[in-house]
Write a structure and sequence with these properties.
Strand content: 25-35%
Number of domains: 1
Order of helices and strands: EHEEEHEEHEHEHEEHEEH
Number of strands: 12
Structural class: alpha/beta
Strand order of the largest sheet: 5-10-8-6-11
Shape: globular
CATH superfamily: Nucleoside phosphorylase domain
Distance between the termini: 38 Å
Largest sheet: 5 strands, mixed, barrel
Helix content: 25-40%
CATH topology: Rossmann fold
CATH architecture: 3-Layer(aba) Sandwich
Number of helices: 7
């Protein structure tokens, strides 16, 4: 028998909206763009022909509107897979839990969730200000071991190859890997590099940056760059993609992550105008998304 979800587990605010996002079911589109920076939500929605709803609670900003007849929501996640855990679960709840009865709906809805973010390249051939589509999200962040999930045979083989080629500090990350939704990835071909995106649990030591704290794994970047499996290479790393792909797998949503490259860690270059690179990605991404 299906169990009612308790008030302590599924929290609604005073206006009957899901707690962190402050959004009600009718206020969310089924095609969703996620961005990390709350200020970037307006940079996306300014291209909408019409905006229906705007909400903000903490770092979570949501705008819902239209491009032509296409209804879209853009949601800020903040940084890291801990925030992705909040956002993906609440997006799912908005379409798949009955807010009145607190029971899971008998017919489930699969959302289209597309991340438009920033990232650092790990291959010399990927230029700063270029765009990368994440064919896979490889998590070094430890969110997904808290969930029950299924990997495909290809994912298992690729993950086994990664464990054999890339040294991880004992007691550190438990790597996991998930593929993008091909239904979305097929639309992002021309003008995009494609490869495995590594998701890290931090910006400094987890991404090989040493300021005053010494690195426990100083060869990590070189090992990530050198990884290869049947033509697949690690192209970039950031802090959200594997969480999006992993929870998309658990909850049954179609997910894709697309990044503007603002740094090339091999060339040690940083974009001279990262905002322009992000704006170019938003324009190109919206043109594609509006037509899906």
């Amino acid at each position: 028998m299906e169990k009612r979800i308790a008030e302590s587990e599924f929290i609604l605010n005073s206006r009957g909206a899901v707690y962190h996002l402050d959004v009600r079911p009718e206020e969310l589109a089924h095609t969703i763009i996620t961005v990390g920076d709350p200020d970037r939500v307006q940079n996306v929605s300014k291209h909408f022909d019409k905006i229906e709803h705007t909400f903000q609670h903490r770092e979570f900003v949501t705008h819902t509107g239209y491009i032509g007849n296409k209804r879209l929501s853009v949601v800020s996640t903040g940084i890291g897979t801990d925030n992705i855990d909040i956002v993906l679960n609440e997006l799912d709840a908005l379409v798949n839990i009955d807010f009145e009865t607190r029971f899971i709906k008998p017919e489930l809805t699969s959302l289209q969730i597309i991340r438009l973010g920033t990232s650092g390249a790990l291959q010399e051939s990927i230029p700063v200000d270029g765009f990368v589509v994440s064919s896979h999200g490889l998590g070094l962040d430890n969110l997904m071991p808290y969930y029950v999930f299924e990997n495909t045979p290809e994912e298992k083989q690729m993950l086994e190859a990664f464990r054999g080629q890339v040294f991880m500090q004992p007691g550190g990350a438990a790597p996991c890997l998930f593929a993008a939704a091909e239904s979305l990835q097929q639309h992002f071909k021309d003008g995009f590099h494609t490869g495995i995106t590594v998701t890290c649990p931090g910006f400094y030591a987890p991404q090989g940056r040493a300021l005053r704290g010494a690195l426990s794994n100083p060869n990590l970047i070189d090992n990530l760059t050198g990884f290869s499996y049947e033509g697949h290479r690690i192209t970039n790393f950031e802090m959200e993609t594997s969480g999006i792909y992993g929870l998309g797998r658990v909850l049954g949503h179609q997910c894709l992550s697309v990044s503007a490259i603002v740094a090339n860690r091999i060339r040690q270059e940083f974009s001279k105008d990262g905002a322009a690179a992000v704006e170019a990605l938003i324009r190109k991404g919206l043109e594609i998304i509006a037509g899906i």
